[in-house]
Design goal:
By secondary structure, the protein is an alpha/beta fold. It is built from twelve helices and twelve strands. It has a single domain, classed as TIM Barrel. It has an eight-stranded parallel barrel, surrounded by nine helices.
Amino acid sequence: MPELRSRLQVDLPGERRPRRLRSSPALRRLVRETRLDPAQLVAPLFVVSGRERREEISSLKGHSRWSPDLALAEARRLARLGVGGVLLFGIPDAKDAEGSGAAAAGGPVPETLRKLREAKLPLVSIADVCLCEYTDHGHCGVLRGGEVDNDATLPLLAEAALAYAEAGADVVAPSAMMDGQVAALRSALDAAGHLDTAIMAYASKHASGFYGPFREAAGSTPGVGDRKAYQMDSANGREALLEMELDAGEGADLLMVKPAITSLDLLALARQRFDLPLAAYQVSGEAAMIEAAAERGWIDRRTVVLESLTAIVRAGAQVVMTYFAADVATWLREDR
């Protein structure tokens, strides 16, 4: 054996030895290429009407539907942790075929936005713009002959965006995947004097099996059919880049991919092609899988959460929507 080892001895004078920079935690931290910061994280919040109303979401561990007063308290906690923003989804008391509650000035999203504005928290307030939570059929637009009518939906999305901008939203985020939705919002916002309200486009949003827990949280599961006629086929990468290009041309200020973990290649390609900030949504199913595996002892929750978010940022995202925002901000503080 000694003779065999001597024959296999390799001389490496002057050769690169990457392991030198992995030899201690301090050295690994020093040369780390991709760093997470709480300021780049956005926490989704589900808001309902009323006061002191909190409803746990069974499929999203640790998350609830909040009335505006409690949503404000949660936002204060997130701000203290250094989280960058909140993304608001509203669940109305009543729904109709046209999703009229989305644009109601007295709805839970505008009320929460007004409270956030008055509190002057160091958080970016983002309002999701879609009809799926507000329609009685659960689709993201109005139905005509059983199909979603793209062009009839655009004015309704614009009305909702205006309601949110007037209530104090810093950013509106159209997620309905209607052709021309960014242009419709930009035109309406500019005409109403909301020139500084930014648009974060759900530009590459695939029809996905990872949205299940969200649909429970928002009560937005389609009553009939699915969303494959307007959300993208998850097999299509070139089409995703086309969607981003169209949204950028229509006036989007940020471009988002969703789901995050299955869109890492798209983030990397988009980073090469676009100068706009890129966002990614680590969606409810991604979070639920991590929670379920951690509960069974199959993975270490903290390690996997941080690893998954680091991969998303490494691929090109500057902003990440994640249900782990508060936890990650806490961990990053502890690691300083």
